Amino acid sequence: MLQLIALTSVLLVGAPQNTQYSYSHFKTSIELTVDISMIAVFDENGTPDVPEFVADSAQSFSESSVPGWAYVRTPQRMQSFNSIEQTVNKLVENSEYDFVSPVFLSENSLPYIPTRDLLVQRTHESNQDSVEALLRSYGEILDINFSGMERVYRVRTSLTDGRDVLVLANELAGMEMFAFAESDAIAWVKPAHMPNDPEFNQQWGLHQSNDHDMDLPEAWDISMGSEDIVVVVLDSGIDQNHPDIHQLTGETFTGSSSNGNPGNGCDNHGTAVSGCVAATIDNNLGVAGVAPHCWVRAGKIFNEMDLFGFCFGFLEFQESWAVNGITWAADSGARVTNSSWGGGSPLSGITNAFNTTRASGVFHVAAAGNDGSTTIGWPSSLDSVISVAAMSSNGTLASFSTHGNGLFISAPGESIRTTDRSGGDGYGSGNTTTIDGTSFASPYTAGVAALILSVDPTLSPDELENVLSSTAVDYGSGGYDTTFGHGFVNAKAALDAVDGGTSCTGDLDGDGSVGVADLLGVVDQWGACNGCSGDIDGDGTVGVGDLLAIVDAWGAC
Length: 557
Known about the structure:
Helix content is about 25%, strand content about 25%. The protein is an alpha+beta fold and about 550 residues long.
């Protein structure tokens, strides 16, 4: 652990220099500094060769999870701004690689590496022919309406230097014909996880005696979710063979795996997030998710970083991966997405994808962040995404949780028992783990949103926001505040608000009460039975879960 911390400080805190470098997020300039501890190199034919100035390749050269890219750790003698500039100049001039860039640092000290490709969107008013002629003067147009986003182009330039790409992108961004222009950059963001006791076995966020919880058992009397509602977890993948996750086959956008599976030994975060949404209930295994009968699905848009032999706890991605994942979620019919990541500088293509898909009916939920500050990070700061803070089991804001202006709601996020990668992979040796972070408050909220849509699938994202905010339990000062947002998310109150009450759960014979006749009705339909009235929990089988539902609902209703 000490070795990891020391190496991290060398790589990420290593005396970046102030420069005039920047990139444009829509029309706003985001300043960048140069990290003097690394440079990034690219070979379009595969893994780049180790440069001559690196003596110890095992500790100083590491492949990126983005194909063809690698990070080169600069020797101590070369760790100055001028030396980095000279080294990049030399590598570009001798054509040793197809593309070279300094590793820039965003305002949150997270790496940002321009690639030779651009993502640009022309404005409604611009002339399409003129725009495309201009773009072709800089390279090849790879995609028009990229990832289904109107007027968005992906362009491969002929440039070989990341600094030149920044200059070109900023020049285009300043033109009236473009809504935004930026490199299809490689970037890092922070997941929100801090694993602790893997044997902790209480899911306090669902139900506990002090009632600082989401009232899930009471909500499940109304609905455990519907398989018509799909939640896409935009993360580092989900263990597709996990025995305790109710999931559909996912999709990988990073090239590191297939079907949304983890792609390396560090890809653990997405599996833990997904269990909060839809871990299977009543199967005598592990844990239960908030919406156990809804589907969860992996949109693998990140690779967790295995850098110089360490799992760094950062998520690496290329912007186009995330754009593709967000638009795929919408196109595949997902009603809810979860993004348990953030902290980097805003990227226009991703912002545009969230905004566009929200407008088409997809409800986006994201973690507020784990730095304990009062500044909500991107993307949860977007108007098209709701931001979720983390609560402790005693009803206070978790000490690590970000909060502040723009916070929407709070949910359990400390000592959360959830799914872990199966077998020997993951955070521990079993199939479950205990973990902290707004990364887990966010999918809990996404799961509650899925339950609400299971009861009333006609709700728009704006209407869904209103249900969540109006039924949250007020904490802190009266009404909305920047510590808890609208309050602590409450599943039972939310479902009460949308449940029409036209039927009584378990009242099979329709006499206004649940009793012996209804119990016998379940027994008579025992076994596989899709659509049967006795299939109260909607899992396609009449069984023990349905008997328990009858007992829970016993009496007049």
